[in-house]
Amino acid sequence: MDGATQVTTAPAVLILLGPPGAGKGTQARMLEEKFGLVQLSTGDLLRAAVAAGTEAGLAAKAVMEAGQLVSDEIVIAILRDRIAEPDCARGVILDGFPRTTVQAEALDDLLAESDQKINAAVSLEVDDGAMVERISGRYTCGTCGEGYHDSFKTPAVAGVCDKCGGTEMKRRADDKAETVASRLEAYHAQTAPLIAYYGDKGVLQSIDAMGQIDTIAEELARIVTAATA
Questions:
Q1: Is-catalytic flag, 171?
Q2: Which member of 172, 176, 201, 222 is catalytic?
Q3: Lowest mean pLDDT among 83-92, 107-116, 128-137
Q4: In 40, 66, 104, 150, which residue has its Cα 20 to 30 A from 156's Cα atom?
Q5: Torsion-angle region of residue 72: left (phi > 0), alpha (psi -120 to 50) or beta?
Q6: Distance from C-alpha of 213 to C-alpha of 148, rounded to nearest angstrom
């Protein structure tokens, strides 16, 4: 990967599928840099909409403050607002959404409103048995969000982010090894059916995500280039 920004020929909508620890966030950030796309995750979307005080954000805030799950309708409304912003003109990478076929159908309806479509849904295939090490060893820079791992990707200088120089590193509470099994079970029950859904639509691609990060990134870049040509 040479880091040079490439321009896609049309606004693209890419989906990254894979269980916890598959590397979706890391690969999405690399695609952002290479293709000028915008990574969108449900959590970040919700927090930004709440902070901005948008109509959908206020609705989400009320639901969350009541201790309830934000409905698909609210998430779609927030996504509709976000993809209409100027920085998404080249396209977006959806990381962690959709999680169910119901959400996938709602996303299709949303994109149809602006004559857009899913260019590619990429499944990052992993070995469940290796996920415990992957997940329990990962952490991020508290300043810029760059991802690291105890075994696979450490900063050049211990405790100092390669990207921004930040020194505050964070680990997610749900990355503890004992939580991995239940998260994988939930993924296989709810999200794996999306593989069949997008396979039926002819936009599914699969990548062996157990290899080196740069090798996976090169394969993803090839897929994105072909899907947006």
A1: no
A2: 172
A3: 128-137
A4: 40
A5: alpha
A6: 11
Phi, psi of 11 (to 5 degrees): -55, 130
Confidence at residue 147, expressed as pLDDT on a 0 to 100 scale: 92
Beta strand pairing call for 147-149 and 120-125:
unpaired
Span 117-176, pLDDT tens digits = 999 999 999 888 778 777 888 899 999 999 999 988 999 999 999 999 999 999 988 888
The yes-or-no answer on residue 134 being catalytic is: no
- Single-letter amino acid code for the residue at 151: S
Judge whether 29 counts as a catalytic residue: no
Q: How many alpha carbons lie under 13 Å from residue 21 in its C-beta half-sphere?
A: 26
Question: Which is nearest to 83 in space by CA: 58, 50, 134, 48?
Answer: 48
Measured CA to CA, the distance from residue 199 to residue 92 in angstroms comes to: 20
Percent of the chain whose predicted confidence (pLDDT) is above 70: 96
Whose structure tokens read 């620890």? 21
97 contacts: CB under 8 Å, gap ≥ 6: 40, 41, 42, 75, 79, 103, 107
Residues 142, 30, 126, CA angle at the centre, nearest 5°?
Answer: 90
Identify whether the C-beta of residue 195 lies closer than 8 Å to the C-beta of residue 2.
Answer: no
Instruction: Considering the candidates 47, 80, 153, 183, report the single residue annotated as catalytic.
Output: 183
pLDDT for residue 188: 84
